[in-house]
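Protein modeling request. Please complete all fields; requests missing the sequence field cannot be processed.
Requester role: graduate student
Desired output: 3D structure, token encoding
Chains: 1
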Amino acid sequence: MAHPLALHGERMASRISSVFFTANVSGSWRHVGAALTPHQDPEALARDHLRRQAAHAVREYSVLDAAAAQDAANAALAQPPRGCPLDITGSVHLEVTDLDRGLAEEHARRKQTADLDHEEETYRLAHLQRILADEDLRRVWWIARFPDRFTDLEGLKTALHGLPSCTEPADDDLRGDIKTFTDRLVTALHTPEQREVFLHALVQTLTIVGHHNLASDAARWRTAHETGSPPE
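Delivered output (232 residues):
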């Protein structure tokens, strides 16, 4: 025989500190296992189980996601309790007060603003890193910012020794290493003669490893940029 029970107006914490759901739980229980001790109230065990399961589920959600939180809580209540002599079932209906919803909306606005500020600051610092890691850009940036302190530029160069160039996030470590190395290599190729040696070695390497399509592309690139060739 199943015994009904209900929990009304339970305050359950959401993902946001100090912002709560109001939960109403309808459930039932029936004895299926070993006998209970005289100190075990089956109705209290059932209420505790339903309360704990629902509270655990809704803690993962904001009150702005009430529908998803309710689905998760109901899924949790559908799981039978382990090691309990009772068969407990239940369903939950979640409500949110205007105050809690307003607090959650304000929290979301503040978090969005903080995320945008963080993104802007990260972009600004990455841009500055690109400038400071490039000797030519660094010189122009310094002259534009401090036209009367040109003699201090050498000290900045010393302080920035070893600063890596800022690169875009790589798909994996190997790809990132190759991109970084290639950027440094291309930067080092200042003369047509150096570029010719690089392209010649690249064509030979691709041919040896069997990438003939890439070797052909590199060969065409080499021909188009031979010393003295007119630009396309």
